[in-house]
Amino acid sequence: MAVFSAGQGKELDLSDLGLKKAMKPVRDFAGFRTAASQASTYVDLMLKDYAARNVGLTFVHAAPGLVDTPLLKKVSLTPEILATAKSIEVCGEHQLYALLNAPAGASRTGQDGDDIGMDLPATEEVQRTLWEHTEEVISGIE
């Protein structure tokens, strides 16, 4: 299970697969959100590829929503937003539900652990291009 922001991805910028351009303007929440939405698509495509390479296994990308963790208490959010955060225990129940109910293959789940479908903003060719880029980057790590 990958916990990030399932279902909130966007089309990939094939000229910036390393997110170098996308991360430059990350000085505010809007810039961060742009980079994060592309990264969300990366996670979707990664799990889809893992599932194709490992038939019979289950891969889930989850978007649990706002969770009341110690880290959340350090972020400046309004009381109205904080009130919408679910407890760690409730989040855990939703994620366990997602894992126990997910079929073999790749799937994405929303805030309550329910399947939100795999309607991805990328073609098989884009997925292959991202995978090749990732292998190239990883092979360069010493």
UniProtKB/TrEMBL annotation:
One of its GO terms (molecular function) is oxidoreductase activity. The keyword Oxidoreductase applies. Keywords: Oxidoreductase. This is Uncharacterized protein. It comes from Mycena rosella (Pink bonnet).
